[in-house]
């Protein structure tokens, strides 16, 4: 049973590290501007706002994208157009760029997507987590969550140090 407890604590610590990284990314996005997409090791997180990719991706989902050098038909990509990000599926490609379409849309997007517009390929979809991601969008909310998480981390480490010192 002690092994299970240790595994659970390790998983909780790993989760808190990932959460802190996501929050730091979100803070960086707020600091660097609305249209900059912060990345950690080439990965970026975005909250989906519309249902144009239903049923594969729903409004309120969190997507994790990764920049690549090559994309192929069937890939779900996120691209920038007029300062806004859109996530659609590649249905064809030619010299003009990628032809994209939202799965729930009746027609393909009007303009081809040039390779320099592509922010990345969708690697993971976390259902409904985008709502939380949007909640920490404000710098104040993200800073508060980061400080609370850091305080909890420090207190848990302090408790461990105190327990070791008492037993020695």
TrEMBL record:
Superkingdom of the source species: Bacteria
Domain (Peptidase S24/S26A/S26B/S26C) ranges: 44-101
Keywords: Hydrolase, Membrane, Protease, Transmembrane, Transmembrane helix
Record-listed E.C. numbers: 3.4.21.89
GO cellular component: membrane
InterPro entries linked to this entry: LexA/Signal_pep-like_sf, Peptidase_S24_S26A/B/C, Peptidase_S26B
Pfam families in UniProt: Peptidase_S24
Entry protein name: Signal peptidase I
């Amino acid at each position: 049973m002690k092994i299970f407890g240790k595994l659970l604590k390790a998983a909780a610590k790993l989760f808190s590290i990932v959460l802190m990284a996501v929050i730091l990314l979100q803070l960086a996005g707020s600091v660097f501007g609305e249209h900059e997409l912060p990345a950690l090791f080439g990965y970026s997180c975005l909250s989906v706002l519309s249902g144009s990719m239903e049923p594969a991706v729903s409004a309120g989902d969190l997507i994790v994208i990764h920049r690549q050098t090559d994309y192929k038909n069937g890939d779900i990509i996120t691209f920038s157009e007029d300062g806004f990000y859109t996530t659609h599926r590649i249905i064809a490609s030619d010299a003009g760029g990628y032809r994209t379409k939202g799965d729930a849309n009746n027609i393909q997007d009007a303009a081809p997507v040039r390779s320099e517009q592509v922010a990345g390929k969708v690697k993971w979809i976390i259902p409904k987590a985008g709502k939380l991601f949007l909640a920490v969008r404000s710098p104040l909310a993200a800073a508060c969550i980061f400080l609370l998480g850091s305080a909890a981390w420090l207190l848990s480490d302090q408790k461990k140090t105190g327990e070791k010192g008492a037993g020695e």
